[in-house]
Input
Amino acid sequence: MSNDDVPDLWIDHPTALVEIRAAFEAYERALMANDTVALNHFFWQDPRVLRFGPGENLYGAEAIAAYRSGRDVSDLARTLENTRITTFGPDLGVANTEYTRIKSGRRGRQTQVWARLPEGWRVVSAHVSLLD
Output
């Protein structure tokens, strides 16, 4: 069965791919600038949103915002590699990337689930981890 036969399950929908990539790149710029207002804007403003990090499990937009305002940003700058974005229909996608922190050289991984909501593309689930 081809993607054309099942448009609701259209994997790598071209419009969604472009839009999620743009949102992902804007998120990364905000992260590198430590723009907490913008970073919070990218997350779904709902108690069901979650972000699992290297040392924290955050449930809800308020917990994520509180974490952002107090986190250590001394080793924030990073380079990305092996970024992959896959969409599932026009309204849902997953962005995965590997990163290397420039100062410490630590390597990590990041996954974001993006959903098109009435207010635009938002991260509805995120997972960030560091490798040993």
